[in-house]
Amino acid sequence: MIANPKHLAAAQRRLTTASRCYARTERGSAGRRLAADRLAKLHARVGYLRQDALHKLTTDLARSHGTIVIEDLNVAGMVRNHSLARAISDASFGEFRRQLAYKAVKFGSTLVVADRWMPSSKTCSNCGTVKTKLSLGERTFRCEHCDLILDRDLNAARNLVQLVTTSVAGSGPETLNGGGATQKTQHAGRQAMKPQPRTLTGSDVDRQPAMAAT
Ligand SMILES: [Zn+2]
After folding, report:
1. How far is the CA of 173 from the centre of ligand 1 (A)?
2. Which of helix, strand or coil describes residue 180?
3. Across 155-182, average pLDDT
4. What percent of the chain lies above the pLDDT cut of 90?
5. What are the residues facing 114 on neighbouring strands?
6. Mean pLDDT (whole number) for 173-192
């Protein structure tokens, strides 16, 4: 489990103060230039911290694991949910994937991208039973069939691991190579649902940044 460092949230109070300061200055004044400069520096700092933490994490993952499985998250759809937008943008999922893709090539690791429609959170990683409903608020996965009780994200991550460990030769999920080219193959029995036009529902946001490395 890797916590979201939440650099933006940590800097939010100083950012709010700085932008209020800026708003109080007069147009064209020296004070305004100073306040704008201060605000820009704070924003830049959040960016540097975020980028630095992300690079350390992706390098570490690509260097120390032969296979990495990530989920193809509907980031655009998730960001449309206003209560999640800020935290998701702060975690920079898109950049995370971009870095992992080229670093996997660099360090000789395989990056596997699980289909966006795979019900990774709703599936029991022990018996394979798929729940019909799992709200975002339910942080613990409880299987009614085999009584498994496990952290929601850990359960999802274990399902992602199974995607590669149970894969039969010639049938596997989408593998991403460094050029960004995708080689798409269908995993037997894992084809969940047909893609449909998106509207934001609970199941959209139930895809937390689950990730597994073997
Ligand atoms: Zn179960």
Report:
1. 23
2. coil
3. 66
4. 54
5. 71
6. 43
Q: How far is the CA of 210 from the centre of ligand 1 (A)?
A: 19
What spacing in Å lies between the alpha carbon of 39 and ligand 1's midpoint? 51
**What are the tokens at 95?**
């950049």
Whole-number Å distance between alpha carbons of 16 and 93: 25
Distance 205 CA to ligand 1 centre (A): 22
- Please tell me the distance from the alpha carbon of residue 184 to that of residue 29, in angstroms, as a whole number: 57
DSSP helix/strand/coil, 201: coil
Query: What's the 127 CA to ligand 1 centre distance in angstroms?
Result: 4
- Specify the higher pLDDT residue, 208 or 19: 19
Q: What is the pLDDT of residues 132-156, one digit of tens each?
A: 999 888 999 999 999 999 999 999 9
What spacing in Å lies between the alpha carbon of 123 and ligand 1's midpoint?
8
Q: Which residue's entry shows tokens 């029995």?
A: 189
